[in-house]
Amino acid sequence: MTLDTRTTPAPSSGRWVADHDPEDVAQWESTGRSRAQRNLGLSIFAEFLGFSVWQLWTIVTPSLNKAGFALTADQMFWLIAVPNLVGATLRFPYTFAVPRFGGRNWTIVSALLLLVPCVGLAIVVQNPQTPFWLMVLVAATAGVGGGNFASSMANISFFYPEREKGAALGLNAAGGNLGVAVVQLVIPIVVVVGGGLALDRAGLVVVPLVVVAAVLAWRYMDNLTTAKADFAGYAAAIRNKHTWIISFLYIGTFGSFIGYAGVFPLLITQQFPEVKATWGFVGLPQVPLTLAFLGALVGSLARPSGGRLADRSSGADVSIAAYLVMALGAVGVMASLAAGTFAGFFVSFLLLFVATGVGNGAVYRMIPAIFRAGIDVANDPAALVLAKRKAAACIGIASGIGAYGGFIIPRVFASSVKTGSLQPALLAFIGFYVVCALVTFAVYKVGRAQRFAGTSI
Fold first, then answer.
1. In the chain, what percentage of residues exceed pLDDT 70?
2. Which sign, positive or negative, has the C-alpha torsion 358, 359, 360, 362?
3. Rg of the chain over CA atoms, in angstroms?
4. What is this structure's pTM?
């Protein structure tokens, strides 16, 4: 019998690894790949739970008044919007948590922090007399789940070589996005199993999974001493105008995805309260609400296709098409509301979700090309390295700013509802998507950025 000499070396105390170099091909093939894949799998699980907790209130809120609460439409939109505001803001400090504390250590901490919103939700939804300010405060704690995305993506980026980083980060992001769909599918069923409406289960059902994620991270993940915060790269990206243009465009794609995912269940119950009689199944009265998960699901699954389409043509072309389809989807929603047809409303929203997913992948695909524009790769390797650092920083900044769309969209809908119609909100979104398409065309199709690049962005 021969021993397998390619097993991963035992990490030092605290599971700190000092010699991980993914660009070293020999080391990557012998020990690096297995280490990276192990950390990626556990990172996906933890991030999946983070997104699930982040979006818990989106699926609980529509049922609160059935449980004895007396919330106004505006209050409901606040409960959906506040976790997104906190989650988007936390993405910036979370980005630097991994280099400071270690990827394994921060995954444990960030996972255990999810217990706070889960237990808090389970407590406040049991008492219809709970003050609204306290409910908002508890909902805000769910934002820690949104921050997990930034630290998880930063951590995994240190494990993979440049040639495989895109695929790894794509899997990591998709795992998180799917958490939105799963929580919107499972929670409406969990809270009605056995009869009645036990909303506290929405938080309690996640608790054991969070504990499992923390234990697995403690037992099997690694900290890398080579994970360093690139403050210079971030400073360079902040000074670059394209970072802010991309961030604006990402509000239109990811901001729309997370924003619509948040309001979709509530809009279904508010605009089509009678649909239960047609769509409900015996013993499962929450089926119409559960259907909302399909929006987040198709949006998540469409994201990789946006990147692939952009590889075949260009990120700018696919992004422009995505914005125009999003505008078309919003028009379809308006028409369906006017006609009072749930089927048209539902299908139009699914079209919107697909377009946001495609747009997410396409906008991210543009970033490396934008920062590589004009660089002589063969003769100026230092400039190429700086471009990669700025592109990585831009991705982090855009992910945080884009997530603010999850706050903006519910608040725009809340203002629109006060007028007695969703039409003002939808018209505003259509105008915004047209602006995004025009900006993309002007800057990255016919503008100086495209001419300077010398190739399709």
1. 90
2. positive
3. 22
4. 0.88
**304-350 pLDDT per residue, tens:** 888 888 888 888 999 999 999 999 999 999 999 999 999 999 999 99
Whether residue 91 sits in one domain with residue 64: yes
> What is the model's pLDDT at position 446?
81
| 256 and 150 fall within a common domain | no
Residue 4 pLDDT: 42
**pLDDT band at 196; cut points 50, 70, 90:** low
Residues 165 and 246 in one domain: no
Sign, CA dihedral 295-300-305-306, equals positive
Domain count, the chain: 2
